[in-house]
Amino acid sequence: MKKRIYYWVEEKYTNKPIISEVILETKVMMNILTARIEPNESFLMLELNGNSEDIKTAIQRLLNYGEIEDVSKSIKQNEDKCIDCGACVVHCPVKAISVEDYKIIFDYDECIGCKNCVKVCPANAVEVLDE
Ligand code: SF4
Ligand code: SF4
User: Fold this and answer.
1) Which of 71, 97, 104 to probe ligand 1 with, by most ligand atoms within 8 A of CB?
2) Fewest CB within 10 A of the end CB: N or C in the chain?
């Protein structure tokens, strides 16, 4: 399974190789989708790949050094408004939008909620759910 989380690392642990250690310990693969490293806090968006038990263990380990929040689903394509222009496709950083038989398909499991598609859509066909 795949799980995406926001992760805030406490100041005292910002120099610790937490991600590498948790990967080695749990064998859960972690992609860093976004990172902001500052002296007093690090913020990461992580994608965890593995079986559900291992992901649970990895999250427990990560919680020893900071706080975690699930990445929620934040957008939805309004198919009635969408004109399948394709403008959103190239602006998606994680390739969550594709074209199939001239139709635009959103993969919400891949979406990281960046809202680039909302900004570029000329038809206001992407709704923001969490604001
Ligand atoms: S919100 Fe971002 S990641 Fe999600 S589909 Fe739109 S462009 Fe892609
Ligand atoms: S930019 Fe908007 S109208 Fe164009 S394909 Fe994407 S969601 Fe549909």
Assistant:
1) 97
2) C
Could you tell me the CATH number of the domain that includes residue 37? Answer: 3.30.70.260
Q: At 105, is the secondary structure helix, strand, or coil? A: strand
* Residue of 78, 88, 112 to mutate, ligand 1, most atoms within 8 A of C-beta: 112
pLDDT tens digits for range 56-111: 999 999 999 999 998 877 899 999 999 999 999 999 988 999 999 999 999 988 88
Q: What is the span of the domain harbouring residue 17?
A: 2-70
Are 54 and 114 in the same domain?
no
Give the length of the chain: 131
Say yes or no: 65 and 14 in one domain.
yes
Q: Is the dihedral of CA 97, 98, 100, 101 positive or negative?
A: positive
